């Protein structure tokens, strides 16, 4: 069994997806559809812009989705559809890519939702108030207790449970800085403040969750062609009503990626294909489960290799 997985913010790179668009008409059509939906030449920014502008949350989120969906379109052109997977999953914004790939939300609607999500998350907290940090070498339960101890009346929460050795915390800047000190004293290998523009996946994102609830109310959500392993429950669902509420909850809730990978392994997944830019999720999977082999599907050469591999086993 296999899963198609979709990267989140941080995987963006200038030039991502250009090779796909140059080699597959269907991939170019995805970028065109996103450009039209946003009434912006986002593809030009992705391929020819500067990384600082691309990294702005409202640009990075739809850009990464467009690249992932272009890779899915290229796989489709090679004869491999999303039904080749038993599950789809994505890290944070990648959950939207996963749903679009599985036919649950249209590409145009997904692009518009991610633009709204990016802006709402950026505007939820004034710049400089919030922060995030990666704690390396301690497990989730330990980091959760450290975050609670560091809060001292502020907000400090475990935001991303990425793998057994990497947990990201989020909240008020002073509290996150206190947590880094406590984590090092508790034996963390490293505690790194992250270069992010807002404190994602914590209670400070409450205003953004409200805006996403309104935006999602106006969007048609269908049952995905294959089950989604959702971030905030680390379990699978195909129920549109559930998906709608989980996407709202995801804005302030923890990304339970380690548990999602453990769910895959428990349910027979032996191959995970990272669809889109980068290999960050593959690394997290390798550190979580020895049972799951990982493959990158980010350029035309990858697509051809994977298509041959999968068509031989379908």
Please give a structural write-up.
The protein is of the alpha/beta class and 314 residues long. The protein is built from 14 helices and 10 strands. The protein has helices at 18-23, 25-38, 42-48, 51-55, 57-77, 94-101, 107-123, 140-151, 173-185, 206-217, 240-252, 257-266, 280-288, 300-311; strands at residues 2-6, 87-90, 130-136, 156-163, 166-172, 190-193, 228-230, 235-237, 271-275, 293-297.
The gist of it:
With 314 residues, the protein is of the alpha/beta class. The chain has helices at residues 18-23, 25-38, 42-48, 51-55, 57-77, 94-101, 107-123, 140-151, 173-185, 206-217, 240-252, 257-266, 280-288, 300-311; strands at residues 2-6, 87-90, 130-136, 156-163, 166-172, 190-193, 228-230, 235-237, 271-275, 293-297.
How is this fold's topology laid out?
Layout: E1 2-6, H1 18-23, H2 25-38, H3 42-48, H4 51-55, H5 57-77, E2 87-90, H6 94-101, H7 107-123, E3 130-136, H8 140-151, E4 156-163, E5 166-172, H9 173-185, E6 190-193, H10 206-217, E7 228-230, E8 235-237, H11 240-252, H12 257-266, E9 271-275, H13 280-288, E10 293-297, H14 300-311
Parallel strand pairs: 1-2, 1-9, 9-10
Antiparallel strand pairs: 3-5, 3-6, 4-5, 7-8
Helix pairs in contact: 2-5, 2-7, 5-6, 5-7, 7-10, 8-9, 10-11
């Amino acid at each position: 069994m296999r899963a198609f997985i979709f990267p989140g913010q941080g995987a963006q790179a200038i030039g991502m997806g250009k090779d796909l668009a140059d080699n597959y008409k269907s991939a170019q059509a995805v970028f065109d559809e996103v450009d039209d939906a946003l009434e912006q030449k986002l593809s030009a920014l992705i391929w020819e812009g500067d990384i600082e502008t691309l990294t702005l949350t409202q640009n990075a989120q739809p850009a990464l989705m467009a690249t992932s969906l272009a890779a899915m379109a290229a796989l489709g052109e090679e004869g491999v559809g999303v039904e080749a997977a038993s599950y789809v999953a994505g890290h944070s914004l990648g959950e939207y890519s996963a749903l679009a790939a599985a036919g649950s939300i249209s590409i145009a609607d997904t692009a518009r939702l991610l633009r709204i999500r990016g802006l709402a998350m950026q505007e939820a907290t004034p710049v400089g108030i919030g922060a995030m940090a990666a704690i390396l070498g301690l497990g989730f339960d330990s980091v959760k207790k450290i975050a609670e101890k560091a809060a001292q009346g502020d907000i400090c929460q475990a935001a991303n449970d990425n793998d057994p050795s990497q947990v990201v915390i989020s909240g008020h800047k002073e509290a996150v800085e206190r947590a880094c000190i406590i984590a090092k004293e508790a034996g963390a290998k490293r505690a790194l403040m992250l270069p992010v523009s807002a404190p994602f996946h914590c209670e400070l994102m409450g205003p953004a969750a409200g805006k996403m609830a309104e935006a999602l109310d106006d969007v048609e959500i269908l049952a995905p062609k294959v089950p989604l392993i959702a971030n905030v429950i680390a379990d699978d669902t195909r129920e549109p009503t559930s998906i709608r509420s989980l996407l709202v909850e995801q804005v302030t809730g923890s990304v339970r990626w380690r548990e999602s990978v453990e769910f895959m392994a428990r349910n027979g997944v032996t191959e995970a294909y990272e669809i889109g830019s980068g290999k960050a999720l593959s690394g997290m999977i390798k550190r979580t489960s020895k049972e799951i082999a990982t493959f990158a599907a980010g350029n035309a050469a990858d697509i051809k290799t994977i298509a041959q591999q999968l068509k031989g086993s379908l």
